Amino acid sequence: MENSSNKDKKWIDVSATIFDGMVRWPTDPAVHIYKADEIGKNGSEANVTGLSTTAHVGTHIDAPLHFYKDGKDVASISLDKMIGKTHVVHILDKEKITIAEIEPVNIAAGDKILFRTANSEQDWSHEPFKDDYVYLSTEAAKYLVEKGVSCIGIDYLSLGNKENDPEVHRTVLGAEVVIIEGLMLNNIEPGEYEMICLPIKIKDSDGAPSRVIIRRL
After folding, report:
1. How far apart are CA 67 and CA 100, in angstroms?
2. CATH code for the domain in which residue 74 is found
3. Over 90: is that where the pLDDT of 189 sits?
4. What range defines the domain where residue 9 resides?
5. How high is the pLDDT of residue 5?
6. What is the DSSP pairing of strand 207-216 with strand 60-62?
């Protein structure tokens, strides 16, 4: 019989399910999932699903190429940056992630940080796009880069907001820190976890949909 401590250490999927018409960045094309082929149709013996979207749909990573013309693409990023010890940090500020809420966390070089914010109070993937999501402040981004983190994750479609989006992305990606956006952290408690984030390996792509799982350490 499995004991409670083992149950607490089960893998938890914190990635969004991709579905037809789901919320996306306003300037991106709509997510479209369709049957490219179907059993019994025109003599076909197999179902084949077609997918039309961008590389930044649902839970996904940003590679340096996203904001740097000659930056690394998704296929060039070391998986070590997305696998290993991870801090899940709860943010109380309803506007942005600040240094004040990060400083108490014992962050070491190479660590990964996932931010659970007020964005996780609802299933954002089924809601219309909202402009007032909680984002990472520029000052906090610089602080995390100085600490030497290898990965930063957030529970909405972008790390920055309309005021600082390019600056935050360039600060983080310029240091070759991996960004995970679109996490589903609604039931995740703060603390230390092990994480596995596996982006689709797409050559010359600035981002990629990713499956992200975590479990308690």
Report:
1. 27
2. 3.50.30.50
3. yes
4. 4-216
5. 53
6. antiparallel
Instruction: Report the alpha-carbon distance of residue 165 to residue 26 in Å, rounded.
Output: 14
Which one has a higher pLDDT value, 121 or 3? 121
What is the per-residue DSSP string for 69-112? Answer: TT---GGGS-GGGGEEEEEEEE---SSEE-HHHHTTS---TT-E
Q: What is the pLDDT of residues 139-150, one digit of tens each?
A: 999 999 999 999
Rounded mean pLDDT, 60-80: 97
Count of the separate structural domains present in the chain: 1
Residue type, 53: T
CB 92 within 8 A of CB 53: no
Both tokens assigned to 78: 């070391």
Comparing CA positions, the residue from 162, 202, 193, 158 lying closest to residue 179 is 158
Q: Which two tokens stand for residue 77?
A: 């990023």
Q: Judge if pTM exceeds 0.85.
A: yes
Contact 8, 213 (CB under 8 A): no
DSSP-derived secondary structure letter, 25: -
